[in-house]
């Protein structure tokens, strides 16, 4: 029996049972009555929720039926079912949130997964990993405790399957195995920072195990997988004060031979590894004699970043508009900071830009730290040198401020609050919660934290970021966001 029809009306019209004209991004009835339109429910999420409830009910019924004995002379016939399995529900949810599709410009960037998932080879390890992430995503976004248990069971199954694959010389080097490990790294965002770091380190070790030959097979997926792992290990190194692993650097040198045409995203990744090493050197330095050399290296790295970002602007352009021009009329004014909205062609491009900006902010913070230290330690330096250092500090603070504003302008698209004109049927218009785009919340965590903790960020901007972080933690259930949120709250309170 099919379930009841789901209303596609906006929240206000559903509440008072009035006819909704379903205009995007805001209901015409709400505009006419000067009400704040809460937007429309995502039909895909409703489908997932309905499928999940059916599957849970079926599992519970099957569990209960195991206590009933049947006569050996008349075994019960197998009952065909149209209800999807937990694997199907979980994988569908993962693909919906983390793989780019035509229905949304805010969701997904792991669009190399379907090609491997759709091959003729059986992929139990990858399926279990995707299902675990999809189920925990649904469990947290829809507050379903039963799904949390199912997700943990599926996660344990995926870990066992990954371990078995790693023990096989054949399975361990397959793309599907590394994809499974990368996917489980997404799961760790719902567990906590330490678990995520350990998982990222494991993914890097597996990437190294695959060797240089992974790039020589004419497989473009290998480069995408390496880029993903490199991005994650860079983030982990910057948070744990570790240099970039030497074996990953050697693998990067080999991968560079197969990149082909000039690629700004790849080049920025290489610059990011230099940034990681420079940050480690600065944190480990104890004397003052190294300061000039470290500053020179940081200034050169910043100039290289500016050149690479200029190339990225050509290869992955974006454009700036206003909330009103983006169609955000009558919505929650707090959802968009300062009314600025930047639109990117794909979620992959948006993530690449924000990753680059986050690393550029680290470089700028290194420069500011070194300049302030040198000015403090040597206030009697020649006047020309002091003027130069102060000018460099002023310019670097300006870059930090600009890059931070650029990151904040990506939030509306990343969370699916608004959509570019090329996506007229964006399903999340009006929904400002991270549930609207779990993958958007996932890719925003680190870059928003970088802006939130930056000393040049103004108090209103920091408080706005804190509110967004609370939504990410509460709406998407990402445990990793909590310590970052607490750190920003502490910084904000110290400024008062």
UniProtKB/TrEMBL annotation:
Record flagged with keyword Transcription regulation: yes
Keywords assigned by UniProt, alphabetized: DNA-binding, Nucleus, Transcription, Transcription regulation
SMART domains on file: GAL4
Keyword hit for Zinc: no
Ranges of residues in domain Zn(2)-C6 fungal-type: 9-37
GO molecular function terms listed in the Swiss-Prot or TrEMBL record: DNA binding; DNA-binding transcription factor activity, RNA polymerase II-specific; zinc ion binding
Source organism superkingdom: Eukaryota
GO BP annotation list: positive regulation of metabolic process
PANTHER family in alphabetical order: TRANSCRIPTION FACTOR DBAG-RELATED, ZN(II)2CYS6 TRANSCRIPTION FACTOR (EUROFUNG)-RELATED-RELATED
Protein's name in the database: Zn(2)-C6 fungal-type domain-containing protein
């Amino acid at each position: 029996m099919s379930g009841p029809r789901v209303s596609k009306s906006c929240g206000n019209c559903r509440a008072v049972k009035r006819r909704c004209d379903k205009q995007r991004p805001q209901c015409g009835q709400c505009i006419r009555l000067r009400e704040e339109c809460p937007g429309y429910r995502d039909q895909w999420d409703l489908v997932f929720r309905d499928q999940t409830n059916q599957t849970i009910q079926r599992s519970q019924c099957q569990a209960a039926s195991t206590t009933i004995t049947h006569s050996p002379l008349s075994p019960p016939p197998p009952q065909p079912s149209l209800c999807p399995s937990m694997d199907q529900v979980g994988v569908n949810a993962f693909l919906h949130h983390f793989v780019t599709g035509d229905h949304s410009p805010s969701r997904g960037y792991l669009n190399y997964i379907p090609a491997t998932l759709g091959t003729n080879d059986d992929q139990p390890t990858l399926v279990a990993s995707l299902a675990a992430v999809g189920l925990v995503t649904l469990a947290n976004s829809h507050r379903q405790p039963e799904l949390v248990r199912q997700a943990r069971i599926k996660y344990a199954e995926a870990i066992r399957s990954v371990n078995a694959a790693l023990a096989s010389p054949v399975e361990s080097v397959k793309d599907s195995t590394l994809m499974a490990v990368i996917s489980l790294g997404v799961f760790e965002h719902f567990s906590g920072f330490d678990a995520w770091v350990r998982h990222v380190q494991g993914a890097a070790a597996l990437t190294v195990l695959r060797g240089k030959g992974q790039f020589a097979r004419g497989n473009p997926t290998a480069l995408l997988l390496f880029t993903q792992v490199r991005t994650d290990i860079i983030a982990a190194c910057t948070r744990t004060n570790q240099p970039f692993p030497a074996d990953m650097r050697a693998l990067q040198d080999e991968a560079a031979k197969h990149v082909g045409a000039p690629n700004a995203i790849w080049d920025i990744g290489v610059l990011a590894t230099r940034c990681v090493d420079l940050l480690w050197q600065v944190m480990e330095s104890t004397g003052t004699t190294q300061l000039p050399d470290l500053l020179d290296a940081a200034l050169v790295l910043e100039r290289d970043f500016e050149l690479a970002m200029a190339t990225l602007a050509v290869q992955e352009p974006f454009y700036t508009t206003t909330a009103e021009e983006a169609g955000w009329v009558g919505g929650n004014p707090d959802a968009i900071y300062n009314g600025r909205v930047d639109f990117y062609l794909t979620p992959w491009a948006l993530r690449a830009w924000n990753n680059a900006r986050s690393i550029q902010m680290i470089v700028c913070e290194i420069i500011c730290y070194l300049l302030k230290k040198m000015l403090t330690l040597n206030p009697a330096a020649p006047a020309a040198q002091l003027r130069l250092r102060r000018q460099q500090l002023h310019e670097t603070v300006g870059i930090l401020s600009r890059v931070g504003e650029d990151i904040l302008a990506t939030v509306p698209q990343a969370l699916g609050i608004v959509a570019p004109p090329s996506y007229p049927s964006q399903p999340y218009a009006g929904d400002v919660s991270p549930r609207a785009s779990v993958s958007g919340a996932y890719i925003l965590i680190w870059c928003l934290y970088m802006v939130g903790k930056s000393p040049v960020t103004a108090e209103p901007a920091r408080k706005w970021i804190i509110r967004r972080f609370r939504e990410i933690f509460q709406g998407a259930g990402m445990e990793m966001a909590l310590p970052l949120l607490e750190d920003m709250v502490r910084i904000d309170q110290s400024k008062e």
